[in-house]
Design goal:
15 helices, 422 residues, UDP-n-acetylglucosamine1-carboxyvinyl-transferase, Chain, binds shikimate-3-phosphate
Length: 422
């Protein structure tokens, strides 16, 4: 499906965006291995979350839906059922890596895979630590690629220094640690999103967190709870960006998750000169939530690298679009992880921005964008990546002439209803 985007003369309104993808996937997964029922409200509806639910149903979990509520009947750590067919996570890296951390502790053997993109993404980052915990895993090319066949067993605790700041890696090990004897210690170079830590603690697991180091003792159970899913800041980012770059705009976004490990995009946009008000801050199941007011702003280029990168990793495509319209140069470094996302996001952003007439240079670990204040409407690719499709739909709102986003259905992975809301 192609989508035609016309230049906009101003965005106005009050909106809600779908429930946070990271928190939604954790809620259904943790609810499944908890004792008792978990009741989730405002669960996200994107394709990745549906993939997680589908896999958990294959593992014998029942989900009851009632209006905005989903009730999950937790089976405890060890009572998932052997699936009768291969577990298919679709496009969801979070489902693949977190679920693997649960499968290594089960009483059965199972095989987990995903779509073409998933089958090309590096999995050694989880299979290496999980095998150090004595997990039995077999995959392609030295256990680096899906499908993985995992035979559950009793695990051993480890002390692991992850070389990548990845919440998927950290969470996979933390889940496996529940099935291990003794205390597992995990560290990462920079702090990645901490939804797993917050949700595990909320569900009764004791953690010891000291900066970027986490210790977790095996054998602890999760207790079923009520979980509210805030709006996804990574989805809100497309509307925040749109309101900033389209003249005469003012929008109000309700119930957005503002976990500090996710708000790099707000910090950077503010540094660029963005007019974003954060109001009505409150906390729901240990996750901070707020309402945001965003107005059209004059923006300047910025440099980002190092510690902030994991806090803004999913927002770099849309930040790049914004930067192309800002004054001056934007430099993004230390972001080589973008090359192993749903697609190579550095390449995808560079190709589409160049097509639209932007001045952009590709770096091995990022990109340099010299802002020009003008983009031209043209046909852009989605590269089978929801965030690329969404970012370039927003770019089209400011372009001279019409923009066509090819294969725009990829937006459904994280943001079903995006075009209608727009
Ligand atoms: C996620 C972690 C990040 C992020 C992804 C969701 C999560 O991936 O890019 O969209 O829910 O844990 P990495 O852990 O690979 O950095």
């Amino acid at each position: 499906m192609n989508k035609l985007i016309k230049r906009s003369s101003g965005l106005h309104g009050e909106i809600k965006v779908p429930g946070d993808k990271s928190i939604s996937i954790r809620s259904v997964m943790f609810g499944s291995i908890a004792e008792g029922d978990t009741i989730v409200s405002s669960l996200g509806t994107g394709g990745d979350i549906q993939s997680a639910v589908r896999c958990l149903k294959q593992l014998g979990i029942s989900f009851e839906e009632n209006n905005d509520l989903v009730k999950i009947r937790g089976k405890g750590l060890y009572e998932l059922s052997k699936p009768s067919s291969i577990l298919d996570v679709g496009n969801s890296g979070t489902t693949f890596r977190l679920l693997s951390g649960i499968l290594v502790g089960q009483k059965f053997e199972s095989t987990i895979t995903g779509d073409e993109s998933i089958q090309g993404r590096p999995m050694k980052r989880i299979t290496v630590p999980l095998k150090l915990m004595e997990a039995e895993i077999k995959g392609k090319d030295g256990d680096n690629y899906a499908p993985l066949t995992i035979k559950g067993r009793k695990l051993k605790s480890i002390k692991y220094n992850s070389l990548v700041a990845s919440a998927q890696v950290k969470s996979s090990i933390m889940l496996a640690a529940l099935y291990a004897d003794g205390i597992t210690q995990i560290s990462e170079p920079y702090k990645s999103r901490d939804h797993t830590e917050r949700m595990m603690e909320y569900m009764g697991v004791k953690l010891n967190i000291d900066g970027n180091n986490i210790s977790i003792e095996g054998g602890q159970s999760l207790q079923g709870k009520e979980i509210f899913i805030p709006g996804d800041i990574s989805s809100a980012a497309f509307f925040i960006a749109a309101a900033l770059i389209v003249n005469n705009s003012e929008i109000f976004l309700k119930n957005i998750g503002i976990n500090p490990t996710r708000t790099g995009i707000i910090d950077i946009l503010k540094k660029m000169g963005a007019n974003i008000d954060i109001t009505n801050i409150r906390e729901k199941n240990r996750e901070p939530v707020a309402d945001l007011i965003v107005k059209t702003s004059e923006l300047n280029g910025v440099e980002i690298s190092g510690e902030i990168i994991p806090r803004i990793i999913d927002e770099i495509p849309i930040l790049s679009v914004v930067s192309a319209l800002a004054s001056g140069e934007t430099i993004i470094k230390d972001a080589a992880e973008l090359r192993v996302k749903e697609t190579d996001r550095i390449k995808a952003v560079v190709m589409n921005l160049r097509k639209m007439g932007a001045d952009v240079e590709e770096l091995q670990d990022g990109l340099v964008i010299r802002g020009k204040n003008k983009l031209k409407g043209i046909e852009v690719e989605s590269f089978g990546d929801h965030r690329i499709a969404l970012a370039f739909a927003v770019a089209g709102l400011t372009a001279d002439g019409d923009t066509t986003v090819k294969d725009a259905e990829w937006t459904d992975i994280s943001f079903p209803g995006f075009f209608e809301l727009l």
